[in-house]
Amino acid sequence: MQHLFTLSASALAQLVRRRERSALDLVEAHIAALERLNPALNAVVAFRFEPAREEARRLDADLAAGRADESKPFLGVPCTIKEAFALTGMPNTGGLLARRGQLATEDAPAVARLRAAGAIPLGVTNLSELCMWMESDNRVYGRTNNPYDRGRTAGGSSGGEGSIVGSGVSPFGLGADVGGSIRMPAFFNGVFGHKPSPGLVPNTGQFPVASTARGLTMLATGPLCRRAEDLEPLLRVLHTPLAGEAESGGVLGSVADVAIDSLRVLDVPTDGRWRVQPELADAQRRAASHLEARGTRVERRYFPAFRHALLIWAAAMEEASPERFAELMGQGVAVPPGRELLRWATGRSNHTLPAIGLALIEDLLDVLPGDIGRYRDLGDQLREEILDALGAHGVLLYPPYPSVAPRHGEPLRPPLKFTYTALWNALGLPVTQVPLGLDSRGLPLGVQVVTAPGHDHLAIAVALELERAFGGWCPPSVRP
User: Fold this and answer.
1) More exposed terminus of the chain, fewer Cβ within 10 Å: N or C?
2) Choosing from 157, 170, 248, 321, which is the catalytic residue?
3) Where among 373, 396, 418 does a domain terminate?
């Protein structure tokens, strides 16, 4: 059964269609792998093994009787779901201790679409408190570890997804991204992730969720997966409404229509503020060189405004969220961050240090209203500059973080480097995170592939090409 944990979800569904494996075979194999590896990772935090087995048995019976719709793209394939998304009967706390015991009574639209496409969720995965930090750690479930080095972060806020997909146990999962929450976990755990164009996939049915127009532009729901061939079919499933659902926004192009040699590639090596580790920078150079050898037009570019990514993102978040973060922490009643910091220092807080820190930063932004407007305008100008540079057939290569997965706690020193991913949420551009092999310590390398809204298929086509060239996901030493 070992080879099952290297296949794409699409290939696993083919095994079920061809009757080479039953859906129950797949579910049992993945449950066994979860039970063996998850205790060291703490990636999946609540399980639905018996419902998953029953769903697999029903599917197998329908297949035997000729009643099953065998065209479903993920027929009988196990998967995992970020705990922030509503999955019927499963916890839905968003990592907030005050919501412990909160269970979902229905599926979020994105979850329902995956299940309608044949996927069988095995459980929900860990996240950061209120989905707002790059370490998946909270007072409800504890901390998630990286499968390549358990002393390192799995990223956040979809870190449980990144960890369990990167470990080889889950072929794909569902995440959400407001500042890098799909792409950083995908990078740190060596897998693919895609932040879609605004509106392409519904964000409803998760906690917390954006409610303003700007918030819906910044927040994105999308897949993490170990094989690039699953990106387009997963995105197509997530984009396609079920009966009775509202139409999703935007148009999803076809990867089959993309000629790699027709693309323009902007190679942007740094934000000009945070130095990128040499091995990571070299991986991006090799990716750009490969694309150039395939006939693309590669241009090395620098954008001076990238140095201000933190304030551009903060200004966009200020506009995006009508509710203060401190109020989310207190479920409608603002938590005084100064007092909570003192409680944390004495071990009495129900909140994590990153959440308290964000509430403190929020207070600081209140005294800088003029600067917020200035950086909002700068972000608008930068967006237009990048769209003009990309044109109709362009992609942009950019580091996902200044280093490979840092050790637990290191992202707080200083807590600002996440802007390598957060910038693209502020600008509302789709991005595919692509693995590029391992560094000399066996830790995943990778690159972001950015493109214009509505051109998700261009970034995915580049991901497929780079997977062919560099191998894509490299399983960690501890295998299912």
Assistant:
1) N
2) 157
3) 373
Please tell me which residue in 10, 22, 72, 82 is annotated as part of the active site.
82
pTM here is: 0.97
Cα distance between residue 72 and residue 23, in whole Å? 13
Tell me if residue 10 is catalytic: no
Residues 284 and 343 in one domain: no
157 is an active site residue: yes
369-379 burial, b for 16+ CB within 10 Å, e for fewer?
A: eeebeebbeeb
**Of 10, 163, 167, 181, which residue is the catalytic one?**
181
Looking at the fold, whether 313 and 388 belong to one and the same domain comes out as no
In terms of Cα–Cα distance, which of 449, 454, 446 is closest to 428?
454
Which pLDDT score is estimated for 368?
56
Whether residue 82 lies in the annotated active site: yes
Of 84, 127, 140, give the one whose Cα is nearest residue 350.
140
364 and 403 co-located in one domain:
no
DSSP code string of 85-120: B--TTSB--TT-GGGTT-B-SS--HHHHHHHHTT-E
- Amino acid at position 73, single letter: P
pLDDT of amino acid 365: 64
Residue 73 lies in a domain: yes
